[in-house]
Amino acid sequence: MPKSTSPETTAPSGARPELFIGTAGPGVKKTDPILVADNVTRTFGGMTAVDVAHVEIPRGAITALIGPNGAGKTTLFNLLTGFDRPTTGTWQFDGISLAGMPAYKVARTGMVRTFQLTKALGLLSVLENMRLGATKQGGEHFFTALISSLWRKREKEITAQAMELLARFKLDSKAGDYAASLSGGQRKLLEMARALMTVPRLVMLDEPMAGVNPALTQSLLGHILNLKTEGMTVLFVEHDMHMVQTIADWVIVMAEGKIVAEGYPDEVMRDTAVIDAYLGAHHDTDLGSLTGQLEVAKELGDEFLVSEISDEIQEEPKNGK
Amino acid sequence: MKIPQAQASRLAHRARGALAILIAAAALILGPAAMASAVETPAPTPSASPESIEIWIRVAADKSNVPNASVLVTGPKGFSQTFVTGPDGKAFVGLPRAGDYTLLVDNKSLPAGKGTPPSESNPRVVTVSPGDVEDPAYFLLVPGGTEPSVPGSTNTPGSGHHSSSGNNTDYGALVANLTANGLIFGLLLALASIGVSLIYGTTGLSNFAHGELVTFGALTGYVLSGVLHLPGWIGIVGAAVAGGLMGLGQDAALWKPLRKRGVGLIPLMIVSIGLSLVLRYLYEFIFGSDQLIIPSDSHAAFVLGPIKFTSITLISVILCVVLLLLVAFILLRTRIGKATRAVADNRALAAASGINVERIIRLVWVGSGVLAALAGVLIGYYQTLRWDTGGSILLLVFAAVTLGGFGTAFGALVGSLVIGLVVNLSTLIIPANVQNAAALLIMIIILLVRPQGILGRRERIG
Amino acid sequence: MDLSFLWLALGQIISPQTIAYALAALGLAVCFGFTGLINFGQAGFMAVGGYAFAITSVHFHWAFGWSVLASIAGAVIFAFILGIPTLRLRADYLAIVTIAAAEIVRYTVKTPNIAPVTGGTDGINGSSHAFDAFNPIPVGRYGFGVLTYDQDDLWIILVGIAVTAVAALFVWQLMRSPWGRIVKGIREDEDAVRALGKNVYWYKMQALIIGGVLAALANIINIIPTSLQPDNYGTQTTFFLFTIMLLGGATTVLGPLVGSIIFWVVLSLADGILSLGVQYHWLPITQLQQGPIRFVLVGIALMLLIIFRPQGILGKKREAYFGA
Question: Is the ipTM of this complex over 0.85?
Answer without folding.
Answer: yes
